Amino acid sequence: MMFIVDANVLIEAKNRYYSFDIAPGFWYWLEKACSRDVVCSIEGIREELLQGKDELSDWARDHRDFFFPLDDRTAQVFPGLSGWARSQNLTDDALNAFAADAADFMLVAHASAHSCTVVTHEKTGNGSRKRVKIPDA
């Protein structure tokens, strides 16, 4: 089983429990786990991380293989994911935000297309109509 990691997991790890100077082994483990198809992320998450100017953005820049690019299999999930979102009685703003947040949308699509388990710190929206939360998708 492959785990696919949201940006907030990597950011939280860097900021709290697994900073690069305290726990370099964690980051080494991520590299090795990726090479064994255990954990990965997607290019959209990498792009989010590259917006920063810190050790995590450097790590994302240096570990491109950790972040899968968009592929045909993932793109085939887009219509179904969009249809699911439209069926959830969400506000127009929530639907537009989900479609515009390419990283979250593609993270969920990649997980669906490749049978991955999403790892995120996001909490369920408990039926909120204002935003699509990753655990609800």
From TrEMBL:
<dbReference type="InterPro" id="IPR016541">
    <property type="entry name" value="UCP008505"/>
</dbReference>
<dbReference type="Pfam" id="PF14367">
    <property type="entry name" value="DUF4411"/>
</dbReference>
<dbReference type="InterPro" id="IPR029060">
    <property type="entry name" value="PIN-like_dom_sf"/>
</dbReference>
<protein>
    <submittedName>
        <fullName>PF14367 domain protein</fullName>
    </submittedName>
</protein>
